[in-house]
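#struct-help
A.M.: can someone run this one for me? Single chain, 126 residues.
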Amino acid sequence: MSVVMDTNALMMPVECDVRVFEELRRLVGSTELVVPDAVLAELEKLAEGNGAEAAAASVGLDLARDRCRAVSHDESYADDAVVEVATRDDVTHAVTNDRPLKRRLLDAGVPVICLRGRNKLAVTQP
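D.P.: on it. Structure tokens below:
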């Protein structure tokens, strides 16, 4: 079983001071983390910029490459890719703070892990 990570989930350690991987272990135990290729591409593009967002994207990209398995998919847009991967049989949860994406995932029957409070993650069931 695995959990799919969205772009902003991988940027949370810098942007929100959240220990994402420790929080995920607390919530779902030791499970494989996957990241769609389109999310990696989005992080690469964001990391090329300047400022806080670029720094967060750069850290997120490093974390994704170090702690997640990249997965291929048919969608070109990162949010669509997250939904596609999240609805696969071997995926149990998706991690995102993006409200429209969260709604799409919940509507598709996927439990969503998102930020609650300042630095804790929680599961929202569909």
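A.M.: thanks! The mean pLDDT is 94.
D.P.: also worth noting: The helical segments are 7-15, 20-28, 37-47, 51-67, 78-86, 99-107.
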